[in-house]
Amino acid sequence: MQNESPAVDKSPPPARSKLYLPLKGKFYLSHGLATTWMLFSIVLSVAWVNDLGSIITLPAAILIIIGLSYIPGYTNAFMVSSLLLDRQPPLKESYPYDPVTILVACYNEEAGIADTLRYISTQDYTGEVNVIVIDNNSTDRTAAVAENVAEELGMRLKVIFEASPGKNHALNSALAYVETELMLTLDADTLLHKKALRHIVARFKSSPSDVCAVAGAVLVRNSRGNFLAKIQEWDYFLGIASIKRLQGLFQGTLVAQGAFSLYKTDRVREVEGWPDAIGEDIVLTWRFLGKGWKVYFEPLAVAFTEVPESLYHFFRQRSRWARGMIEALKVVKPWQQPSPYTKYLTFCNLVMPYLDFIYTFVWLPGLIMAFFGHYWVVGLTTLLVLPLTFAANFILYTYQKRVFKTLNLRVRKNALGFVAYILLYQIIMSPVSVWGYIQEALKLNRVWK
Q1: Cα–Cα distance for residue pair 201/182, rounded to 1 Å
Q2: Which of 27, 102, 318, 351 is the most exposed, fewest CB within 10 Å of its CB?
């Protein structure tokens, strides 16, 4: 009998494969588009550079305009390009059932811990869920309330006590009790969407073996509060989410935030748990990345947290975040990151203090001078950043609406907060961040809450 050659499929590949762009291609294409935008800005800014240089010298003018226009324009263009190219990989396993331990560090959370536990109990997750509440030297009835609610709900709950103040001490004390491969940290004032646990574990289960953590999407719970809370709603919904998406695309989410993130337990133990740092979750994540492990982001894993409604608490929170970034930069230098993508992403953080100082001490005074007819600092090229900012936020808004629709959520109307977020938020944020950098430089006392 004559052997026949196997049939060869000569049909053309599907259109999707033709349009497929590998991660490296997305990275370099985004950089190419960002470079084009920056070169366009440089050409338009020649007159501005010369005018400002005639007043403060040419080198000083170039240094200022780099911080005001060129770098912000470049990074915004890179973000817009990357967001347009982002395609979240499909989940390989939509209904995982791996046992998970949830750690909830508490300090005087008597008023809110019951709701947090109730939302955990309503998860549509089919696997075993264990909860450890760590009472970090509370002076109220946090532990008693947690135990009563857990008994009422039939929840697997363990309450432990940690006298040393600090979130890192609280979480590290609980780490010894974790017996599951996966664990999740959740802030005591943060409520999980009913599908959050399933989606975040599914993303981990659908990821490569070198992924050690998945950050969830944290949104504002008290968005109907005062004006400051309304502005922060858009920061979480658009600003922070866009950064997370960008970093997740390049497999280097820089913060698996303690408020809501999933971790591989043995990886946390391998880096000796949460460090003694004011930004313990930031430093922990950078240690992961420094070992060549990946950190992903799952936009469908949504939780809602309380944001500060007073300027005092807002300043303290955001200055703490800025200080935590500096701590991370000291622990793992950008050039020590093994991945080229995380090298770039952490280098972006390295230039943030420079941008914040320029914005605080040059842009804001320049804005005041512009009201009096002196346009030495606030020029045409700086305004070119605005279209990119609106474009990035529009792209993300469109994407976030789809996410909300999938989760049966609705985007609340908050037009005034959105306009204030676009035009005023950086005016608040840069000086607050500068204060955080100064705190770290002077080694001032660290405060968890």
Answers
A1: 8
A2: 351
Q: Residues 17, 9: contact at Cβ < 8 Å?
A: no
Band (2; pLDDT cuts 50, 70, 90): very low
| pLDDT confidence tier of residue 354, bands split at 50, 70 and 90 | very high
CA distances to 120, 133, 134, 166, 182 from 154, in Å: 12, 15, 19, 30, 21
Question: Which candidate, 212, 183, 181, places its Cα nearest to that of 286?
Answer: 212
Instruction: Count Cα neighbours of 399 within 13 Å in the Cβ-side half-sphere.
Output: 22
| Residue 189: closest CA among 227, 222, 149 | 222
Is the torsion defined by CA of 417, 391, 248, 404 positive or negative? positive
Q: How far apart are the C-alpha atoms of 323 and 393, rounded to whole Å?
A: 26
Cβ contact 191:223 at 8 Å: no
Q: Is the whole model's pTM more than 0.85, yes or no?
A: yes
Over residues 205-224, the pLDDT tens digits come to 999 999 999 999 999 999 88
Q: Give the number of other CB atoms < 10 A from CB of residue 413.
A: 8
Q: Which of 276, 295, 298 is nearest to 286 (CA)?
A: 295
pLDDT band at 193 (very low <50, low <70, confident <90, very high): very high
What is the arithmetic mean of pLDDT over 277-299? 94
In the chain the domains, ranked by start, together with CATH numbers, are 100-333 (3.90.550.10)
